[in-house]
């Protein structure tokens, strides 16, 4: 069990030390989140087991284990909260950032040059909602209490709950095993799309550069080449494409939007968090969790394609009301259709890859768009 | 930078513009959950060439405009609409022209009013007054959409917002309506990416209508 005992932050720390401290705490937070996930998995497996076989002789043991696991989980979440507070105190989570957006984030670019607000989904991760998403992961992973004899029952219960995985998508993705493969394919499919990858620390620099530039003239931002540090970062990211130590992917569709995806471990293709401009940040994160649940191996591929379906954000009318703009009742803002359904989303469009020059082909028409209230109102 | 539509108020035949209309427009922006952000001001000046010989006067453009915009405090924009010319200069050009006695300012107009934030949209409702004068000569509106900087890509969404705005206004039964004229930016050598020069050209384009409105106000 981890004890989060760190010295109080000093105001006079040089920036590199602060960065190192912040990164260390984030790493710790990441480990705690992994513990929370494992614990939640175990809890749910046990619950399913008990629910399906209430009179099994092992069930009382199961219940004891559930209680013990619950205590552990509480401790992990408490430690997470402590780390969150420390990050806030050390200024990594900043008041001015918080007031400008609806979420507290870590040196994230707040105002995209071509997207209203980027809301970072780190908030969700650090608040322990990773535990909630364990429900989905349970359905697709093998986790069980090793000392339970009848693990085959648990496995079949889990399989019953699993959503059907499209079997053809695996073959199509056969040649897209690494981040650079996926991104190169994506860039070929979607015209004007630019992708960048960064190692964790490079992203930190990039994000703070973007965030400080957002306060200056936005003319600088709208031309990417006008950015003094961009060229250098691009050269680094070009090599990142090859070495695949990428931890953060940035998607840019000029004049449309910028999205940021974090990968779980550097170099892997497991997406962990996503930041996409949106007045309700829930939607992108839910999409991410859904793709991970349905098929973890193609999650990044599906997520990137789903994000790119937003390239019609300012042109595709809402499939329910037929208009482009609508006053959203909850936020009181006039918005375009910012919801793209992800439940039956299929990124396997082989035909569209061949006809990438004619963007008006059917794959764009198939992805529907909705306003927030139209999305929740639809039958 | 974000794209912007400049609209001018066209009063109905026989009607005039007054401060009441301006107040109603501001209230309409607030009714769409607009958050008042402060005041804004722009200036537009008509210049006349100073020529020694009157005979040469016709060689010089009559519609030489100078525009200062609030978002570019250090710049001054010069437009000759007839020749499709727009230039971005330092604001010191005004002083230079004065010292050289090459061009003299004939008339200056001030646009001033309140600025409202409506989510990703920014509205500026402004009164048009002659410099050093009180009388209201017209009304302009700036309609800005922050997420998009491409003129082409923004067209559909701006059109819909304009319709939304007109619809909201129709409830107040005002004696007039806003008109949007779209200049041909490529004739001015401007690209699809929006800049303050596009704004200057839009202001220059609505001037003919603004002048006739101002004259009809003066007649009444």
Task: Give a short overview.
The complex is a heterodimer of chains A (379) and B (220). In chain A, 50% of the residues lie in helices and 8% in strands. Chain A has helices at residues 15-52, 59-89, 95-100, 122-126, 130-138, 151-161, 168-172, 179-189, 200-213, 218-222, 230-243, 282-294, 299-308, 350-354, 362-366, 372-377; strands spanning 118-119, 194-198, 248-253, 257-263, 271-277, 326-327, 334-335.
The radius of gyration of chain B is 18 Å
Mean pLDDT of chain B: 88
Main sheet attributes: strand count, strand direction, barrel closure of chain B: 9 strands, antiparallel
Unreliable residue runs of chain A: 1-13, 97-172, 215-243, 349-362
The largest beta-sheet of chain A arranges its strands as: 1-5-4-3-2
Structural class of chain B: alpha+beta
Family (chain A): Belongs to the Mediator complex subunit 27 family.
Main location (chain A): nucleus
Protein name (chain A): Mediator of RNA polymerase II transcription subunit 27
GO molecular function (chain A): transcription coactivator activity
Features:
heterodimer, A: 379 residues, alpha+beta, five-stranded antiparallel beta sheet, two-stranded antiparallel sheet, 16 helices, 50% helix, disordered N terminus, B: 220 residues, Hypothetical Protein Pfu-838710-001, nine-stranded antiparallel beta sheet, 4 helices, 9 strands, 30% helix
């Amino acid at each position: 069990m981890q004890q989060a005992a760190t010295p109080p932050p000093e105001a006079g720390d040089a920036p590199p030390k602060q960065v190192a401290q912040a990164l260390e705490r984030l790493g710790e937070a990441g480990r705690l989140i992994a513990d929370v996930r494992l614990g939640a998995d175990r809890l749910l497996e046990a619950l399913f087991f008990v629910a399906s076989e209430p009179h099994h002789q092992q069930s009382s043991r199961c219940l004891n284990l559930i209680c013990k696991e619950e205590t552990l989980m509480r401790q992990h979440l408490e430690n997470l909260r402590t780390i969150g507070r420390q990050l806030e105190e050390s200024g990594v989570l900043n008041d001015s950032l918080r007031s400008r957006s609806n979420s507290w984030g870590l040196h994230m670019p707040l105002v995209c040059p071509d997207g209203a607000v980027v809301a970072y989904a780190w908030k969700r991760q650090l608040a322990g909602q990773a535990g909630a998403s364990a429900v989905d992961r349970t359905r697709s992973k093998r986790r069980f209490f090793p000392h339970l004899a009848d693990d085959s029952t648990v496995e079949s219960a889990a399989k019953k709950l699993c959503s059907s995985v499209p079997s053809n998508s695996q073959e199509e993705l056969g040649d897209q095993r690494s981040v650079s493969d996926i991104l190169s394919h994506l860039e070929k499919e979607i015209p004007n799309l630019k992708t960048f990858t960064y190692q964790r620390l490079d992203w930190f620099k990039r994000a703070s550069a973007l965030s400080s530039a957002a306060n200056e003239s936005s003319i600088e931002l709208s031309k990417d080449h006008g950015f003094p540090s961009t060229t250098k970062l691009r050269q680094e990211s070009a090599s990142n494409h090859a070495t695949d130590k990428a931890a953060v992917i940035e998607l840019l569709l000029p004049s449309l939007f910028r999205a940021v995806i974090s990968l779980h471990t550097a170099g892997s293709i497991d997406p962990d968090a996503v930041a996409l401009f949106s007045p309700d940040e829930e939607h992108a994160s839910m999409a991410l969790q859904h793709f991970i649940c349905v098929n973890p191996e193609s999650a990044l591929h599906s997520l990137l394609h789903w994000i790119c379906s937003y390239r019609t954000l300012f042109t595709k009318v809402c499939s329910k009301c037929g208009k482009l703009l609508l006053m959203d009742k909850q936020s009181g803002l006039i918005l375009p259709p910012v919801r793209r359904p992800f439940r039956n989303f299929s990124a396997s469009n082989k035909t569209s890859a061949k006809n990438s020059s004619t963007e008006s082909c059917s794959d764009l028409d198939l992805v529907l768009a909705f306003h927030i209230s139209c999305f929740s109102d639809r039958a | 930078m974000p794209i912007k539509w400049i609209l001018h108020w066209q009063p109905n035949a026989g009607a005039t513009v007054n401060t009441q209309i301006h107040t109603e427009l501001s209230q309409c922006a607030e009714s769409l959950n607009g958050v008042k952000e402060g005041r804004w001001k722009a200036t537009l000046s008509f210049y006349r060439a100073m020529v020694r010989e009157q005979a040469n006067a016709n060689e010089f453009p009559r519609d030489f405009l100078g525009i200062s915009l609030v978002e570019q405090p250090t710049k001054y924009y010069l437009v000759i609409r007839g020749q499709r010319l727009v230039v971005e200069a330092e604001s010191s050009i005004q002083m230079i022209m004065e010292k050289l006695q090459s061009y003299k300012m004939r008339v200056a107009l001030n646009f001033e009013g309140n600025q409202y934030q409506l989510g990703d949209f920014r509205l500026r409702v402004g009164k048009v007054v002659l410099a050093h004068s009180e009388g209201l000569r017209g009304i302009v509106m700036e309609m800005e959409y922050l997420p998009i900087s491409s003129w082409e890509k923004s067209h559909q969404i701006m059109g819909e917002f304009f319709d939304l705005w007109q619809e909201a206004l129709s409830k107040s039964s005002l004696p007039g309506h806003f008109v949007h004229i779209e200049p041909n930016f490529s004739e001015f050598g401007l690209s699809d990416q929006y800049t303050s020069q596009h704004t200057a050209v839009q202001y220059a384009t609505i001037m003919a209508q603004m002048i006739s409105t101002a004259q009809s106000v003066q007649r009444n």
